[in-house]
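Newbie here. two chains, one complex. Structure please?
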Amino acid sequence: MMMDVREWVRGHESVACMLHRVLTNSRCTTPLVAPLQQVALQARDVVEVAGPSGSAKSELLLQAAVTCLLPERLYGGWEGGVLWYDLDGHFDILRLVCLLQARIHQGKALSLGGLIEDGDNIMNACLERFLLTRCYNSFDFIAALQTTRNQVKEAQRQGRSMRLLIIDSIGAFYWLDRAASLVAGASIESSRPSIQAVTRAVVRELHQLSNMHGLLVLASKCSIFSPQSSDARKDTRRAGLQHREYMPAEWQEFVTHRLLLQGPMSGEAEVVFISEWQMPALSGVDRFTIENTGLKLVI
Amino acid sequence: MPKLIELGLPSLTPEIYSILASQGIISVEDFMLSADISKLEAWGSGTLKEVVAEILHYLECQRVGLKSGLRGVQDMQAMGIQYLPTGCDSLDAILEGGLREGTLTELVGASATGKTQLCMQVAASVAYKCRALVAYIDTCHSFSSIRVAHMVGTLIKTSEGHQGGVAADELGKVLKGILKFSAFDIYSALSILHELHASISNNFQAPEEFRHLRLLIVDSASSLISPILGGNQIQGHALMVGMGAILRKLAIENHLAVLITNHTVGGEFGQPKPALGESWKRIPDVRLLLTHNPSSNASEVAVIKHSSIACNKQASFCITKRGLQSAEAEL
């Protein structure tokens, strides 16, 4: 009772803090990747990129991270830090370096002999802004999120502001968490946490991290159900990419935007993927190919 | 997970302990699930903030933490990226070098398409050309040491160019590098994998045998998992994902190339699709589909999933008495 009154009187933050938090949005917001450009995203949004395995979700997240890392001048990037939580174990540092090199090379070619900084310096500066951690189960993930606070504060003290928080992929521990909650504890103390409790903790930590630092959250989600009918796949122009939800309600409420991906499409000369916005529901699908310099929309 | 009092935190006074206990936070697990850190830090006195900081410090020490990309690149350069040759040149060409260390490759194919032959060829090739150890987990009693010996013999003859027989001790030295384990159910396979992980990770106590282990083959992973997988049943899926997790750990932390095999089941329109369902699809980095072409008597390999190469390449090989020989792929 005493605690509640004190908390109510003291409040959570001063007006100065709030204004500083909200008004630092005069920052670059060019679209990170081509499929995301139709919807104006801002800080504290949570975008879920869902699709079956092999539909370019991780590639999309990686290309978005590269755009965020690159400097604004000449490369059109956000010049911000990226926090990457690798839950799947699929992260490949070589692919990140390859994409950065391709974009730096492209930027240099377009600069037409103006003042060019050394490519290596830019590469090193970008790589320093990229922070990666691997998690092996849900508790490891929660611990990682809780311990990130201090590390982000430290990075900000050194003048690097974080802009993007990426999770690849959020459904990685789904079966493990569901099975863990079924195991009957030997004693009363070891009551297994339900998947809802674990998801609630993850959402709470993500919410606090993204709120405090104005981060945009991008999460990939791999589907665990096979596609039901094959008709929708044949006609790529008709909207209606399939999506069956399996994450708990706490996660579903946290997500503010959802992009569905599918591919690669058969019967095409190039390797083409399709994307469709489900939340907000936009009609029409985008078709894109993967290149080292970015995702290119094709007609 | 330990209780908070067991951690020996200097700032944890009985008063702070009762405040936390009134919120239901008694163990570290409770802290992770229920503690709203921003609220606790904003509320409480300095001591409560100190306790929260000490608990977070404890959590930080338990895990590796955030690593910058620059550090990651330096570590990678120190370790060196190795592509292990598969022994089949056409396959190496489409994989841009071979099996990459730190990745999980899956061979999918119906019966008698050459999966086990390819596994044995890769084992022979890595044991001979890289002078490395290979761990081969055989689950369907299809490993044949005589066949592997023939393959190694062919490799030695082609590289050293002599027509006559191969010295027995040279052959023996290479074959000693292939360690075969038998496992017929998922639990024994999981215990072998966990033991491997533990003995390689403990640098000081690694038995001499495991120091240069570079390749792990599980033939076939699907025969271990299919019996326990039934419909949408939770335990089976959890065991399958758990197996995927330990294979990944072996690949990433112990820097191995992992090769597993999977069979096919009937899909739509009679097209065979890989077994083990949708949840398994995301686990391998690279998936190769093997089909047998009866007219040319060759097996064709197509890349159906790859994390960094486009999936429109094909290679072809023939199974001969001397091992696997590359053939021209029919386009």
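Moderator note: Chain A touches chain B through 68 residues (CB under 8 Å). Chain A has ten helices and nine strands. Thread marked as resolved.
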